[in-house]
Amino acid sequence: xxxxxxxxxxxxxxxxxxxxxxxxxxxxxxxxxxxxxxxxxxxxxxxxxxxxxxxxxxxxxxxxxxxxxxxxxxxxxxxxxxxxxxxxxxxxxxxxxxxxxxxxxxxxxxxxxxxxxxxxxxxxxxxxxxxxxxxxxxxxxxxxxxxxxxxxxxxxxxxxxxxxxxxxxxxxxxxxxxxxxxxxxxxxxxxxxxxxx
Length: 197
Known about the structure:
Number of helices: 3
Structural class: mainly beta
Strand content: 25-35%
Mean pLDDT: 86
Radius of gyration: 17 Å
Distance between the termini: 25 Å
Shape: globular
Number of domains: 2
Helix content: under 10%
Number of strands: 11
């Protein structure tokens, strides 16, 4: 999974925050192209050809694990990570929550598990920010945000809807994102999830 650009430029004095200046590679979002979808707070999973892989960020200077597949050509210049995938191991204790989610054979919203990328969420993943009662997979782009309009100040959107972020999907495959924490909003206690469709 390649790094998705943020819709606003980063504040050079505090890279954890964004400015109100549009990132030029994301202009298409502001032109009304693409669909806004909910970004879930979990860990990325890939299903390809019936095989299941989990995201692995290889840090610069470290040797990646066996069977690591890089998702990009080089290390990220900001984080120093090389994102990629490693195969799931059904017998490994660290994969037991993924195995639990796969047993359902469908996503949290009831869609069949098909090739694509997913977010693994649940009680033992990222502090269960999504407040799910059991471990489940959510397909990336599965939940559209009809309420998310760029006419809103997005900081107000994130104050009203307690979610990790928004990812826009363009018909040609491009993606762009924004996270609540880009505005300094970190509260994720499971309250007020907002309408999802």
